[in-house]
Design brief:
Distance between the termini: 40 Å
Helix content: under 10%
Largest sheet: 7 strands, mixed
Strand content: over 45%
Number of strands: 11
Mean pLDDT: 95
Radius of gyration: 13 Å
Structural class: mainly beta
Number of helices: 0
């Protein structure tokens, strides 16, 4: 069983920044990919970024150059630094990992960007 707990969401003006955190349970944190997804009202959940077990990163085209995913193995935490935020980034952001074919999700954290 894996538990993921997100934090760091909030209300910010367009052009501002936020940093999301996702704390994961378990002692094998560094051996799994960790990812961020988001879901806006009335839309499907979509991929934002991943940090692989090997240390590589991947981003959705819509956030490239603005968002940065990183990992602190000692803290079992993955971060999403979000800069130059836009109103269209407004969504609930979810942390994700897959263990033995099972998808695990956090409870989500709301990010609202005002214009």
């Amino acid at each position: 069983q894996v538990q993921l707990v997100e934090s760091g969401g909030g209300l910010v003006q367009a052009g501002g920044s936020l940093r999301l955190s996702c704390a994961a349970s378990g002692r094998t944190f560094s051996t799994y990919n960790m990812g961020w997804f988001r879901q806006a009202p009335g839309k499907e959940r979509e991929f934002v970024a991943t940090f692989s077990s090997g240390g590589s990163t991947n981003y959705a085209d819509s956030v490239k150059g603005r968002f940065t995913i990183s990992r602190d193995v000692a803290k079992n935490t993955v971060y999403l630094q979000m800069n130059s935020l836009k109103p269209e980034d407004t969504a609930v952001y979810y942390c994700n990992t897959v263990r033995s074919g099972v998808n695990y999700w956090g409870q989500g954290t709301q990010v609202t960007v005002s214009s």
